[in-house]
Amino acid sequence: MRLQGDPDHGPNPCVAPILKPPFFAVEVVPGSFGTFAGLTTDGRARVLDGTGTPIPGLWAAGTDSASVFGGHYPAGGINLGPALTFGFIAGRDAAEGLQ
Ligand SMILES: Cc1cc2nc3c(=O)[nH]c(=O)nc-3n(C[C@H](O)[C@H](O)[C@H](O)COP(=O)(O)OP(=O)(O)OC[C@H]3O[C@@H](n4cnc5c(N)ncnc54)[C@H](O)[C@@H]3O)c2cc1C
User: How far is the CA of 72 from the centre of ligand 1 (A)?
Assistant: First the structure.
C-alpha cells in the first residue's frame, strides 16, 4: 500500500528508517469499516429479489446494500458517498409513495 505517502521520499513513499527521537507509539488494532457484501439494489436503491426484480417498498443503502464498486477500493469515501446518495434516493422515493 503506497497510499497517502510522501511523494518526495523514495523508494517507498510510506516507509523510512525511524532515526530521530523523541519516539511515540500508539496501539493499532484491526477493524472493519465496510463490506462488499450486502443486498443487491438497483440505481434507485430498491432491493432486488433473486430474479433481479425490485421488491415493492424495500430499499437499502449503506452497509446493508452491496457496494456499487463490486469488490474494488478505488479511494476513500466509497462507503459514505454511496450511503448518502442512495439513502437520499430511497428516502425521497419512500416519502413520495413510490415503490
Ligand atoms: C474507523 C472508520 C473509518 C471510516 N472511514 C471512512 C471513510 O473515510 N470514508 C468512507 O466513505 N467510509 C468510511 N467508513 C465507513 C462508513 O463510516 C460506513 O460505511 C457508514 O457509516 C455505514 O453507514 P450505515 O448507515 O450503513 O451504517 P452505520 O453507520 O453502522 O449505522 C447503522 C446504525 O444502526 C444502528 N443499529 C444496529 N442494529 C440496530 C437495531 N437492532 N436496532 C436499531 N438500531 C440498530 C447502529 O447503532 C447504527 O447507528 C469508516 C468506518 C470506520 C469504522
Answer: 19
